[in-house]
Write a structure and sequence with these properties.
Chain lengths: 114, 109
């Protein structure tokens, strides 16, 4: 059973470009979470999605960031017009249900904005 | 969500037992205590969760006193591969995990 998959693992973008990060949850998991981690810091929650629905986006910046989890295909975190401050590791996690505190994390996408 | 306080870093040697204590003075009645482990360049990994007293699994033990204002993660006989950052999280079993800065454990040979 494959774990949570994220791609790309590394992404370099110039300021002003768009970044698209993909996350395929574990098989049978319909709950997806995105977190951002700056160097030497803990992870910060961004958004929680179920299939086709955004459940909690309280951690998402109001502008330039969006997320989706379509009925078919991976979850996408999209960052428009990236700035240097967006450089970070972005982790996706999935879980089989809403209850419980055990989430399964992917290897992360390291975004570098030049 | 209850705030947690844990040491920034700890050092140990292979074969020793490591105990990492986390303070959570304002823990709520329905909050659980959960620990995650994160290796460099990897996503966090669930280690253990408990509500009160003691919980043990194949990786670690979690000790929670009666007042639940603190908890201790115990790693028996650590090896070099246990070098990682350990996060203590406190909250109800809800959707988002709230990570602090964690404890950076360095294991020496």
């Amino acid at each position: 059973n494959a774990g949570v998959m994220q791609n790309p693992r590394h992404l370099v973008r110039r300021r002003g470009q768009e970044a698209r990060l993909r996350c395929s949850p574990m098989k049978g998991h319909s709950h997806v979470y995105w977190y951002r981690q700056l160097p030497e810091e803990g992870l910060k929650f961004m958004v929680y999605l179920q299939k086709e629905n955004i459940i909690d986006e309280s951690g998402m910046p109001k502008e330039r960031f969006s997320a989706e989890f379509p009925k078919e295909g991976p979850s996408i975190l999209r960052i428009q017009q990236v700035v240097r401050g967006d450089s970070a590791a972005y982790f996706c996690a999935s879980s089989p249900s809403r209850d419980g505190y055990e989430q399964y994390f992917g290897p992360g996408t390291r975004l570098t904005v030049t | 969500l209850a705030k947690t306080t844990q040491p920034i870093s700890m050092d140990s040697y292979e074969g020793q037992e490591v105990n990492i204590t986390c303070s959570h003075n304002n823990i709520a009645t329905n909050d659980y205590i959960t620990w995650y482990q994160q290796f460099p360049s990897q996503g966090p990994r669930f280690i253990i969760q408990g509500y009160k007293t003691k919980v043990t699994n194949e990786v670690a033990s979690l000790f929670i006193p009666a007042d639940r204002k603190s908890s201790t993660l115990s790693l028996p006989r650590v090896s070099l591969s246990d070098t990682a950052v350990y996060y203590c999280l406190v909250g109800a079993n809800t959707d988002k995990l709230i990570f602090g800065t964690g404890t950076r454990l360095q294991v020496f040979p």
